[in-house]
Amino acid sequence: MSIYHLLEIEFEYNGQQQVITPILLQDENDVILIDCGYPNFIPLLEEAANRHNIPLTSITKLIVTHHDMDHIGSLAALKRTYPHIDIIAYELEAPYIEGAKKSLRLEQAEASFNTLPDEAKPGAEHFIRFLQSIEPVGVDQTVSGGEWLPWCGGIRVIHTPGHMPGHISLYQPATQTLIAADALIIEEGELAIANPQYTLDLDEAIRSVERLLDYDIEQVICYHGGIFHGDVQQALQQLIHKYRD
Q1: Residue of 74, 120, 112 lying closest to 200 (CA atoms)
Q2: Cβ distance 85 to 79 under 8 Å?
Q3: Please, are residues 69 and 134 in contact by the beta-carbon 8 Å criterion?
Q4: Any idea where the domains of the chain sit in the sequence?
Q5: Alpha-carbon distances, residue 151 vs 16, 28, 143, 174, 196 (angstroms)
Q6: How far apart are CA 98 and CA 109, in angstroms?
Q7: Residue 162: how many CB atoms within 10 A of its CB?
């Protein structure tokens, strides 16, 4: 039997209080962490996992949904601290996580720099340096869209590009739960697209939401927002219509 735990982590970033929600999946064989926060988040992850009486030493696998800094910032440090953890990522994402390709978020920041007003450039330079500082780490296993992972009751990999081309979400049929990562967020109680202005391909992001209608989803867990409370199918349809109409 599989159990999931929400690791709600509250922290301050750029002077603002934020919350992210990595997920722990657990069964008799595995403890799987999905995404791992910003750099230096191991103590926060440890504290959140301990609230569920799960030590980080028990984690066997870490699934990365995409290579944004708030999802992979502590990845290299976790692998260094707990080398037995297998890092798993979508096949398109692996070169970015491993440092073989430049971060797409870094490319985006660099490309927009010259269009910024002068007063915004120091902040942008700081952000670029921060992105450059994210430490690469080797990926132990790559997965593809539609692949079935036989862990924690079974997990279906769903390729949900848009926010990033290699973004994935994860679906657990046994619990009818979608772990959306950044394919969806919750804003004021409603499902929304994560930072549309920073989404690399907004049309593709909406098509990814449309594909989610093919799944029997009772609950959605978003990295930014936690669990969605409401009719999932209706909320997805409303989100699609917001951008299509």
Answers
A1: 112
A2: yes
A3: yes
A4: 3-244
A5: 36, 10, 13, 12, 33
A6: 20
A7: 22
Per-residue pLDDT of the chain (245 residues; tens, 9 = 90+): 568 999 999 999 878 899 999 999 999 999 999 999 999 999 999 999 999 999 999 999 999 999 999 999 999 999 999 999 999 999 999 999 999 999 999 999 999 998 899 999 999 999 999 999 999 999 999 999 999 999 999 999 999 999 999 999 999 999 999 999 999 999 999 999 998 887 899 999 999 999 999 999 999 999 999 999 899 999 999 999 998 87
Would you state the structure tokens that stand for residue 74, as one six-digit string?
Answer: 């502590």
- The one-letter code for the residue type at 111 is A
Q: Are 161 and 5 in contact (CB under 8 A)?
A: no
Indicate the CATH number for domain 3-244: 3.60.15.10
Spell out the residues 6+ positions from residue 198 whose beta carbon is closer than 8 angstroms to its own: 105, 108
Q: What Rg, from alpha-carbon coordinates, does the chain have? A: 17
How far, CA to CA in Å, does 37 sit from each of 11, 162, 198? Answer: 11, 20, 18
Beta strands in 39-151 (DSSP E): 61-64, 86-90, 141-143, 148-149
Structure-token pair, residue 3: 């159990």
- What 3-state DSSP class applies to 16? strand
C-alpha 167/C-alpha 143 separation (Å) is 12
Q: What is the pTM of this model?
A: 0.95
Q: Which residues contact 61 (CB under 8 A, 6 or more apart)?
A: 30, 31, 32, 33, 85, 86, 87, 88, 151
Residues in the chain: 245
